[in-house]
Amino acid sequence: MMKLNLFLFFIISIHTLAYSQEAPSSNEPLQSSLQIAVYDSPPFGFAYEDGEIGGLMVEIWQSIAEDLDWSYDFHLTDMDGLLNGLQSGQYDLALGAISITPKREKLVDFTHAVNPSGTGVAVAAHSSKSSFLKYWKPLLISLLELIGSLLIVLLISGTIVWWVEKRHNHHKQSEKNISRFADGLWWSAVTMTTVGYGDKVPNSNIGKILGIVWIFTSIILLSLFTANASAILNNSTTESFIDSEEDLRRHVVGAAHKSSGEEFLIREHIPYQSFPNVEAAIDAMLKGDIDCVVSNVPVLKYLNNSSYFEELIISSKLLLKNNMGIALPEESPIKETIDLILLEKISEARWQEAVYKYLGEE
Q1: Chain-centre distance of CA 341, in angstroms?
Q2: Range of weakest confidence among 200-214, 257-271, 277-291
Q3: pLDDT of 348 over the 70 cut
């Protein structure tokens, strides 16, 4: 009986010791400062000139730590140092532009998604490529395709009316008769453009019915033509000429080492050049060494506005949608505590104001 009691005492002691090492409750401060890696990736994490660490993800963490009364130390690092540090136990968590990707999920854990993100393409606004190839060639091709479609419809309409009127007017002579093929095309063109000179008109009942149908059809066609032409002209001056996997395979591509852009290129088997960070990749692109940069779109937009002053054209078409999160070691005891408060923080107006402050969007 005594042996049984000793055994139970031993089991209870082990359980108590394990329980005492679990994560503190949300209102219990930690015994020591958390060691936090900050991925150097403006505007989500970076160092100001005076050395102070800031950024969008840093601000939301500071808000969480303030509520929990947790102390911490920041360590600015790259993605390699961040991932290795989390796996080795050097860091307790990591902040910055850390997209939640399948490859990273195998190495570390993540909190709930914090900020919607995506991988996209940036090209130089004034690259070594000629402006004709970048803007005017695709613009002219699109417009010619649109005009060609319109001319085909016009040709069909003119041919049908000429064929109907030729049979009806073969014994009548009048300058207004549609008696030749060219007359049918002329009538179809002036009717479509609503000019309506009246020098050529259908005389048969069938021809008049076809004329009414063509009048209403041409109004719709011209409206569609105007809308599509405006869209082509607008997009050709604001869109990147590289915005798909097929486009990337035909160009020299750059990406930051261990970035979400690099992971995407590796997964899609697209050749690329690796750079230490996204700024180095952009600089190489502006010098003409590469054609485009694949990276996190919010990061590209921030750098374009703050450092490169609109020297970049960023495609609005995402190659891949993903989310950002706070990274932690596997089975981190503080994950659940952070998650609970994080969900509250991202629903507050303070978070929306921070997003607008750094990204200019809500």
Answers
A1: 28
A2: 200-214
A3: yes
**Mean pLDDT across the stretch 197-217?**
81
Beta strands in the chain (DSSP E): 34-39, 46-47, 53-54, 72-77, 93-95, 109-110, 115-124, 253-256, 273-275, 292-296, 312-314, 320-324, 327-328
Q: Is 177 in contact with 153 (CB distance < 8 Å)?
A: no
Q: Which domains, ranges and CATH numbers included, belong to the chain?
A: 32-114+325-359 (3.40.190.10), 124-129+241-321 (3.40.190.10), 133-238 (1.10.287.70)
Alpha helices for 95-135 (secondary structure H)? 102-105, 131
Q: If you search the block for the tokens 């050097």, which residue do you land on?
A: 90
The amino acid sitting at 59 is E
The pLDDT of residue 36 is: 97
pLDDT confidence band for 213 (50 / 70 / 90): confident
Encode pLDDT of 298-346 as tens digits: 999 999 988 888 789 888 888 988 889 999 999 999 999 999 999 999 8
Provide DSSP, 238-271.
HS-S--SHHHHHTS-EEEETTSHHHHHHHHTT--
- Packed helices 137-168 and 181-192: angle between N→C axes, nearest 10 degrees: 120
For the entire predicted model, the pTM comes to: 0.61
What does the alpha-carbon distance between residue 71 and residue 55 come to, in Å, rounded to a whole number? Answer: 18
**For residue 207, pLDDT beyond 60:** yes
| CA dihedral for 255, 256, 261, 262, sign (positive or negative) | positive
10 Å CB burial of residue 65 (0-12, 13-18, 19+) is: middle
Is residue 304 within 8 A of residue 311, CB to CB? The reply is: yes
Quote the tokens at residue 172. 């009548």
Residue keyed to tokens 């307790």: 92
Give yes or no for a contact between 259 and 314, defined as CB atoms under 8 angstroms apart: no
Where b means 16+ CB within 10 Å and e means fewer, 94-113 reads bbbbbbbbeebeeebbbbeb
pLDDT > 90? residue 289: yes
